Amino acid sequence: MSLPARLIALRKERGLTQQQMADTIGIHVNSQKKYESGQAQPSLGVLKKIALALHVSTDFLLFEEQERRPADELALQFEAISQLPPGEQSVVKEVLDSLIIKYQARRWDSARMAAK
Questions:
Q1: 52 and 77 assigned to the same domain
Q2: Which residue range forms the structural domain that includes residue 105?
Q3: What is the phi/psi pair of residue 43, to 5°?
Q4: Which of 4, 34, 44, 46 has the fewest CB atoms nearer than 10 Å to its CB?
Q5: pLDDT tens, 47-82?
């Protein structure tokens, strides 16, 4: 679903008119109409206000579901992790964070050595 279509659907689900939505996020109603018709794109600041007003993430507004999903092989593992007790989920998150940091540090080191 495109950004304009998503904006319209979410606004209507929340029972808001274009004027009410514009008032909520502090923009002119004409800007809201342009965003919903696809004639204009909201700035990053406005996009954040829209997401907050509609109680969704900016990722939800901008990306199709399949664009932000992990690879199938990881999706099954993430699903299994989501069923663990919260304490064990925290441990898994810490392990993932440490592996990501380690990988990024190695990449940064390699790039720094290559620049010498």
A1: no
A2: 72-115
A3: -70, 170
A4: 44
A5: 999 999 999 999 889 988 777 677 778 888 888 999
